[in-house]
Structure formats: structure tokens, C-alpha cells
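Service request form, structural biology core

Requester: graduate student, group of Dr. S.
Request type: structure prediction, single chain
Budget code: on file
Notes: please return the result as C-alpha cells.

Sequence provided:
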Amino acid sequence: ESSGAAPNSYDSLIFIVDIANNSAFSSAVSIDVFNTNLPELVCYKNVFFDCISCNLHSEIFTCSITKLKEGVTYYLQISAKNQVGVSRSPVVLSATALTVPSEPQNVMASVQGLGNYRIEWSRPQNVGLGFESNQDNKIIIQYTIYFISDELIIKACGKVMDLYYIVESSSQCVQDTTSVSTLTFRVEARNVAGTGPPALTQVQNVLLPAQSQFTNVSCNTTIQLSWACSNSSRMFEIHVSRSYDFNSFQSFTRQLGSPDVSLCNITLMNLMKGVVYFFRMRNWNSAGAGKFSLIKSCPYFVQPAVSLVSQDSVDFVTNNVGARSLNTGR
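Core staff response, request fulfilled:
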């Protein structure tokens, strides 16, 4: 842009615009723009830009140049000419054409729970201004996150300015993926020049643990519950109730201390005399809780006492020996 001369000289003024891709202006393209006859669009072939259009509005002379080559610095020299001659000190401007950003870096995905995933990345090496790698990230307009199904169907999940995105289970893009073993996500960066190449990442899905069952319920002087440990589970939750429908219950958890343990058990003692107790259990992992086991029952015939869990578990290693109570009731 350039300010014009005094209004009374506009009719006889000519602007000379020289465009080059080097500061010496060798092989420059020169165009004369008459104020009385401003060209709407002038196009060229086989040069380093496509078209130029100029206009004069409110004493401001403006030229727009299209289809510049990405990453190239352009130089413009603007002179004014009238009946007396050409201005002695032309205005010299330079600017680097925007490029589309490169792919986002260090893209990673992690499971945050059943059907919930966190996608994170760092900014592209080239955010779009020349080929600089340390430009301000403000030049990035947005990042777009996609999910790619096993059938190679691409679904958009969302658009953000941040360097992370949380895909929630309610999102349309990841519906019906809770049984998929491997998930593929794609992240793209966009600026005013356009959308850059995508970056892909995969994550192994964490499925809900399988339903476990009690393998043994021993009803002697103590009640011992045993079940097969699952390598995909890190915690087991046991409910103890005096009613079959578990309207009220006491809950205990056990954490598996070693992946090599194949049999898990817990011993209950000092329960109410003459009461039938009902038991159920379920496995937990990072995706959540699995289904409850089939309900088992056992009568107990000792003196009344407060419900406790024994502090001698053979197959578990916990910070505090014994089981930890979660809650009472539903």
C-alpha cells in the first residue's frame, strides 16, 4: 500500500510497481498503473507470481498479488511518475509468502477411560511463515482431529487452538469403538495459506475387563472367597451383603501386586451369627469396571460382631495389609 500525492495531481500520476524475487531486482516485472485507468486484473505467464490487481481508494493505492510461491521472499519497489519525472527514492518493501504448516510433531494418544481418549502434540516445525522453525504459534489458525476407522472411514472429532484434544465417549467420531483393539487418530494444522499434511498416531484400546467368577466359596469357621486373577485387571472389588438384591452392602477392594499370581482370594471373619451372606465381585482396569460375577451365598454361625475383613491375604500385596473399604450402601 502507498499513499498518493496531492489530490489535484492524481489525474496525471502514474505508479510504477516493480516485483522481483531478489533484492537486486534482477528479472523484475514492472507494471505502470495509471490513476485514470486502474487495471482490475493483470496476469502473467511463466513468472514467479500469477496476477496483480490495483485500486485507489481514499487516497490509498493498493495492489494485490496472487499465487506467490510458498516460502519465497518477494521484493516490491514502488515509484511515482508525473509530467516532471520519476520519484528519486522509490519505496522498497519485502514479504515472505506464507506456506502451509508442516505436520504436527510428537503426536500421541492415550486412553482416559472407556471410550475416552486424549490426543496431544507439539506445534509443527514450520508453522507457515517462510521455513522458520521458531515462529510464534499464533500463525496457526486451528488444529483438526480425525478418527480413522478400520474401514478407513475418516470422521472429524473436533477443532482446537490448543496442543491437545479430549475425545469423549459421547463423540460421534468414536461411536462403537469400545470393542476395537487399535485406534488411529489424525491431526492436521491449518493457517491462512491452507492445511498442512497430517500426522497419524495409534493407541491400543483398553477394553473393559471380562466378567470373573468365584472359583471357590468356603463356609467354615471363616468364609474364604477365591477367584481366578485376570492379567488385564489391576483391582478387584468385592461386595458383601445380607440381602440377595444388594440393597445395602459393604465393599472391599484388592489390588493385584504381581502379574504372575493366578488365584486371588479374600478371607472374611467375625460376621453376624446365623446370617446368610451374599457375595459378588468385579474386575477393574483403566477403562472402568467389568460386569459383576454370579452371586454366591454362605451361612455363618459365630458370635455377633462388627463386619471385618481379615488382615492375612496370601495372594495380594498392598500398601496397607488387608482390604480397604470403599463404601457402605449403594
